[in-house]
Amino acid sequence: MTATVDALLPGADPSRFERWRARVRASAPLRRRVDVAAPIAVTLLAAVLRLWDLGHPHQLVFDETYYVKDAWSQWNLGAPGDWPSDADKGFVAGDTGTYLSTGSFVVHPPLGKWLIGLGMWIFGPDSSVGWRIAAALFGTATVLLVYLLGKRLTGSTAFATVAGLLMAIDGLAIVLSRVALLDVFLTFFTVLAFLFAVIDRGRHLDRLGAALAARADGAPADGTGGLGPLLWNRPWLVAAGAAAGAATAVKWSGLYVLAALGLYAVVSDALTRRRAGVPLWPWGALRQGVASFVLLVPVALAVYLASWTGWFVSADGYDRHAAAGPLQSLWIYHQAIYAFHVGLTTPHSYASPAWQWPLLIRPTSMYWHQDAFGQAGCTWTSSCVQAISSIPNPVIWWAGIAATVYLVVAVVRRRDWRHAIVLTGVASTYVPWLLFPERTIFQFYTIAMLPFTVLALTFALQEVAGGRHADPRRRRAGQRVVWVFLAVVVALSAFWYPVWVGMPVPYAFWRLHNWIPTWI
Asked: Angle, nearest 10°, between helix axes 157-169 and 450-465?
């Protein structure tokens, strides 16, 4: 042992080295327990915040008027059916069978509504818990995915827990998990696709590096003529394509995620070939890019088309018989959907163009109800308010935007692939919306980019905390800053939670949350 220690650490004290090894061995079981307990803890916290009193309010909140009824008619007919114009009141009261057999023009793909419908089938269509349970479970699962992605990117259980915690307690994530809209499902499949892509990147580059290392005297051992190897065994890239296809089957904005992941796969492969000195690396990367396309896109298309199975087999789905064949009819339907989306300019009091989103100018009021003293149990103050606002935790959001800008600078200076993948997530879920400044869109769409701004913030906090080789005083000071920041955001989430979930609060308390006039 002494000879081994001298070889590794010349001049080291063998007894001291042995004590260090003993401490490492003793701490290993504790680290394993923490590695298991941390994701469970943040996921359970997310579940409690999302599932508590999920059925309140027993009303169709904001666009639930579309998605809940469409989900139930789709569950029964195979495709969404029309409803009478005054169906909301009866539906809330339990009269859930008044849908018509005529197909309804629905402008989003079916998968999200299938998931909502599943919850309604289990708990009953007259249960507001049934309307929202799928969103709550997928929102909770998204927190776990953020933890897992954070663990792979940061290499730290502590900071993966920070990422999961920030996602668990953020208001936008909580609200979109407690209403039956589509965006939380889009977010789940988006993060899942990125997680699979990160796993694929590590395994692909390992195999690529091993294959390139086998070259002898600058000539490829595999006879590829200087292009480098062509690798097809990439199951995690196929999985990423399936997840991105599922995201697209919820909302078409999932297409941007699919495109971004494909571009990232090609660029990361090309850079690796270049750094390894592959003579014809551009052509080798192009050839691998074609293979990546074949692995990524067809499975995404298959998942997307599979989500339309109910429409294919239905007798009265909208535009189902617009052409002689079902695929031609689906294409005609998609043309109508596209025309709707690009032409949607209907004024809305809570519309918010994408340039406003980083500034948090106009969050969406999902629900607002006021009772005077003596009404609906309002016996302890002169006026009670129940509100559900899509506003995130302001400190998490603004700090996340600042951290994203920091990451842009960091990726230019350091060329860190981990920063690049986070920025790819932000870009694919935000930048496309800047192309439609006149379209009627809403701030709560940012739920899809929230996991990536949280991860950017996590990287920034990890930088503040200092690495293991930093000066001890600098590290202690940095860790204290991180702890103070986390304490502030937890306290602020506790302050905002009542107006994220519609709890009855005094009118004056609700007013305390309107920091900016446009937040009302």
From this structure: 140
CA atoms of 118 and 72, how far apart (whole Å):
9
The runs of H, that is alpha helices, within 124-156 are 128-154
pLDDT of residue 216: 45
DSSP 221: T
Phi/psi of residue 360, nearest 5 degrees? 60, 50
DSSP 48-102: HHHHTTTT-S-S--TTHHHHHHHHHHHHHHSS-B---TTHHHHHHTT------SS
DSSP type of residue 347: -
Instruction: List, in order, residues 6 or more apart from 307 with CB less than 8 Å away.
Output: 109, 110, 111, 114, 246, 249
Report the SS3 class of residue 408.
helix
Q: What is the pLDDT averaged over residues 310-320?
A: 93
Give the CA count within 13 Å in the CB-facing half-sphere of 235. 0
pTM above 0.70, yes or no: yes
The pairs formed by 267-276 with CB atoms below 8 angstroms and a separation of 24 or more are 268/201, 268/205, 268/417, 269/204, 269/205, 269/208, 272/205, 272/208, 272/209, 273/208, 273/212, 273/228, 276/208, 276/209, 276/212, 276/228
Per-residue confidence (pLDDT) for residue 7, from 0 to 100: 47
How many Å apart are CA 329 and CA 478, to the nearest integer?
A: 60
pLDDT of residue 229: 86
The tokens describing 138, both together, are 């997928």
Phi and psi at residue 337, to the nearest 5°: -65, -45
* pLDDT tier for residue 2 given thresholds of 50, 70 and 90: very low
Angstrom distances, CA of residue 14 to CA of 6, 9, 25, 28: 8, 10, 16, 21
Round to whole Å and give the CA distance between 311 and 103. Answer: 10
Please give the Cα distance from 129 to 246 (Å, whole number). 24
- Cα 418–Cα 421–Cα 425 angle in degrees, nearest 5: 140
Q: Where does 286-364 show beta strands of DSSP type E?
A: none
C-alpha distances in Å from residue 310, one per residue of 113, 338, 428: 11, 21, 29
